[in-house]
């Protein structure tokens, strides 16, 4: 069975090739002759416990939404790169899944991915939710960071909801455990203090030609961003465990003659009972998810969007290597 918020004119069970534009391949060497002298470029990994605000921060740093944000933990699943231009520097921020004690296979893939993101970076930025302080998760991250030689900075986030005394105390404690080159105190939500991160890091990335086109905010293919947007709405609207055991894939993407875009996506769940929850009473839940996703997508790609959502049961999708590949994750054995 399938459901949608609009009238589908195709059979959703068909396996459509994905036709969305891709722009995730960095070009080798200088991109064009007009690149100024003295350019710099580098990767900055944002790591931290789930819910620390990494995705909110990357969106602020880049100036547009590249990574989805929810109030729930474990929102980000794969590595998302967001690109900010600052003076002559191209700063490629790497948003990573929150680091926590993994239980399931998917957890393990997410945590491995986060550390992988840290390894490829020129600078590692550790984000701490200042209101929470150094909890068990952050403590084990600090422990593991000790052995990594890459330059590190500390970002205390959520200063809008944290007392000043606590902030200073936290900065001191974290710096006693690890030598950070710099400590920032910011509100990723309001943008307070974020500029100083850009100022600092743009001076510290290596001399290098820019690695991506100047006007490209992300290396995420649009079809994946589109699936992520729907997953964000799913996370926001469904309670309990369900969001963690569902995944979204963009199956088809067609640009129509009138300039609108027709997108088909499938929400995978593991059991029939979960499917009824996603659909909701008389399809109310999926309707509201679909509407919210469609509106946001239309804003991002700046054209009318027809979104068709289907819900499918795929038992044990979380043990299927193919689903991991779609999400951009390595499949842990
Ligand atoms: N008050 C306040 N809330 C914030 C701030 N930054 C992020 N948040 C909130 O914290 C929650 C988690 O934010 P995310 O950006 O999704 O956190 P994350 O670290 O990417 O989480 P995972 O992807 O699950 O690891 C959301 O509800 C955000 O709105 C901040 O500076 N102040
Ligand atoms: Mg995130």
Briefly characterize the structure.
By secondary structure, the protein is of the alpha/beta class. It has helices spanning 54-62, 105-119, 136-145, 164-177, 194-204, 222-237, 272-279, 284-301, 321-327, and strands at residues 40-48, 80-86, 89-95, 123-129, 152-157, 182-185, 247-255, 261-269, 305-313. Helix 6 packs antiparallel against helix 8.
> What is the quaternary state of this protein?
single chain
Shape: globular
Q: Give a list of the ligands.
A: guanosine-5'-triphosphate, magnesium ion
CATH topology of the largest domain: Rossmann fold
Supply the number of helical segments. 9
% residues in beta strands: 15-25%
What Rg, in angstroms, do the CA atoms define?
A: 20 Å
If you had to describe this structure to a student in words, what would you say it looks like?
There is one protein chain. The chain has 2 domains: 40-204, P-loop containing nucleotide triphosphate hydrolases (Rossmann fold), CATH 3.40.50.300; 222-327, GMP Synthetase, Chain A, domain 3 (2-Layer Sandwich). The protein has 333 residues and is of the alpha/beta class. The model is unreliable at 1-28 (pLDDT under 50). Helices cover 32% and strands 20% of the residues. The strands form 2 sheets. The protein has a 6-stranded mixed sheet with strand order 2-3-1-4-5-6, sandwiched between helices. A 3-stranded mixed sheet has the order 7-8-9. It has helices spanning 54-62, 105-119, 136-145, 164-177, 194-204, 222-237, 272-279, 284-301, 321-327, and strands spanning 40-48, 80-86, 89-95, 123-129, 152-157, 182-185, 247-255, 261-269, 305-313. Helix 6 (222-237) runs antiparallel to helix 8. The chain has 9 helices and 9 strands. The structure holds guanosine-5'-triphosphate and magnesium ion.
């Amino acid at each position: 069975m399938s459901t949608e918020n609009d009238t589908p004119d195709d059979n959703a069970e068909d396996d459509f090739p994905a036709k969305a534009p891709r722009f995730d391949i960095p070009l080798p060497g200088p991109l064009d002759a007009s690149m100024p002298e003295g350019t710099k470029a580098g990767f900055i990994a944002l790591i931290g416990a789930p819910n620390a605000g990494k995705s909110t921060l990357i969106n602020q740093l880049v100036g547009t939404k590249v990574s989805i944000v929810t109030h729930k933990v474990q929102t980000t699943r794969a590595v998302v790169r967001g690109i900010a231009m600052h003076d002559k520097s191209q700063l490629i921020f790497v948003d990573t899944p929150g680091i926590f004690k993994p239980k399931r296979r998917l957890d393990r893939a997410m945590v491995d991915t986060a550390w992988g993101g840290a390894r490829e970076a020129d600078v590692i930025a550790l984000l701490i939710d200042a209101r929470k302080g150094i909890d068990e998760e952050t403590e084990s991250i600090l422990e593991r960071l000790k052995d990594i030689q890459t330059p590190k900075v500390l970002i205390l986030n959520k200063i809008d909801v944290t007392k000043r005394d606590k902030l200073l105390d936290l900065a001191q404690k974290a710096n006693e455990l690890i030598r950070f080159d710099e400590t920032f105190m910011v509100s990723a939500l309001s943008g307070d203090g974020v500029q100083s991160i850009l100022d600092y890091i743009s001076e510290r990335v290596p001399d290098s030609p820019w690695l991506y086109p100047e006007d490209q905010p992300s290396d995420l293919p649009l079809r994946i961003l589109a699936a992520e947007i729907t997953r964000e709405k799913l996370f926001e609207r469904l309670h309990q465990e369900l969001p963690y055991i569902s995944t979204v894939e963009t199956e088809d993407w067609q640009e129509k003659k009138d300039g609108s875009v027709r997108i088909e996506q499938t929400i995978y769940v593991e059991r029939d009972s979960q499917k009824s929850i996603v659909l909701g009473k008389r399809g109310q839940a999926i309707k509201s998810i679909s509407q919210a996703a469609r509106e946001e997508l239309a804003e991002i790609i700046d054209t009318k969007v027809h979104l068709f959502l289907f819900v499918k049961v795929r038992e044990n999708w979380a043990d299927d290597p193919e689903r991991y590949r779609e999400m951009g994750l390595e499949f842990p054995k």
